[in-house]
UniProtKB/TrEMBL annotation:
<dbReference type="InterPro" id="IPR036451">
    <property type="entry name" value="CblAdoTrfase-like_sf"/>
</dbReference>
<dbReference type="Pfam" id="PF01923">
    <property type="entry name" value="Cob_adeno_trans"/>
</dbReference>
<dbReference type="GO" id="GO:0005524">
    <property type="term" value="F:ATP binding"/>
</dbReference>
<protein>
    <recommendedName>
        <fullName>Corrinoid adenosyltransferase</fullName>
        <ecNumber>2.5.1.17</ecNumber>
    </recommendedName>
</protein>
<keyword id="KW-0808">Transferase</keyword>
<keyword id="KW-0547">Nucleotide-binding</keyword>
<dbReference type="GO" id="GO:0009236">
    <property type="term" value="P:cobalamin biosynthetic process"/>
</dbReference>
<dbReference type="InterPro" id="IPR029499">
    <property type="entry name" value="PduO-typ"/>
</dbReference>
<dbReference type="GO" id="GO:0005737">
    <property type="term" value="C:cytoplasm"/>
</dbReference>
<dbReference type="InterPro" id="IPR016030">
    <property type="entry name" value="CblAdoTrfase-like"/>
</dbReference>
<feature type="domain" description="Cobalamin adenosyltransferase-like">
    <location>
        <begin position="7"/>
        <end position="173"/>
    </location>
</feature>
<keyword id="KW-0963">Cytoplasm</keyword>
<dbReference type="GO" id="GO:0008817">
    <property type="term" value="F:corrinoid adenosyltransferase activity"/>
</dbReference>
<comment type="similarity">
    <text>Belongs to the Cob(I)alamin adenosyltransferase family.</text>
</comment>
<keyword id="KW-0169">Cobalamin biosynthesis</keyword>
<keyword id="KW-0067">ATP-binding</keyword>
<comment type="pathway">
    <text>Cofactor biosynthesis; adenosylcobalamin biosynthesis; adenosylcobalamin from cob(II)yrinate a,c-diamide: step 2/7.</text>
</comment>
Amino acid sequence: MVVLSKIYTRTGDAGTTALGNGTRVPKGSARVEAYGTVDEANAAIGMARLHAEGDMDARLALIQNDLFDLGADLCRPDMAKDAEAEYPPLRVAEKQVERLEAEIDAMNDALEPLRSFVLPGGSPLAAHLHLCRTVTRRAERLTVDLAAAEDVNAAAVRYLNRLSDWFFVASRIANDDGRADVLWVPGANR
């Protein structure tokens, strides 16, 4: 259990922060950028949840929890040392990726196939879910870049890739099962 009795520590005043293994790195490091953007995606979900109800809200709550798991995963380098760690680090599991895939498939079954690209918008919930999608795509790009240079849990990358797809399909559900999607009209303003 996490206990936070004091919020500021002054340890980051010189521009560094501690990773999950205690290593101090610059706050602008690739790893901090990756998990910081995951945190940003989580905040965007919090805004989307202001417009969500029922099952959609419950699914978004699960995703928010998953993103804390993902942040914990990304802030802990040196996966090769996981077995010898005093406390086993939390890693995103393939089961979490599979849950997203099952939810995407179930939501997509209710939708007509797309015949055009969808512009972000429609209902307030759909617009917020599109924002969640784009922030998640940025988190994915940063995590892929990180994985090119350092050890990263492959399930974490897959999770982010599926999550952005999840947000896209969920935005269509939020737009009256796609009937209120705002469709791109190529060259409409020429």
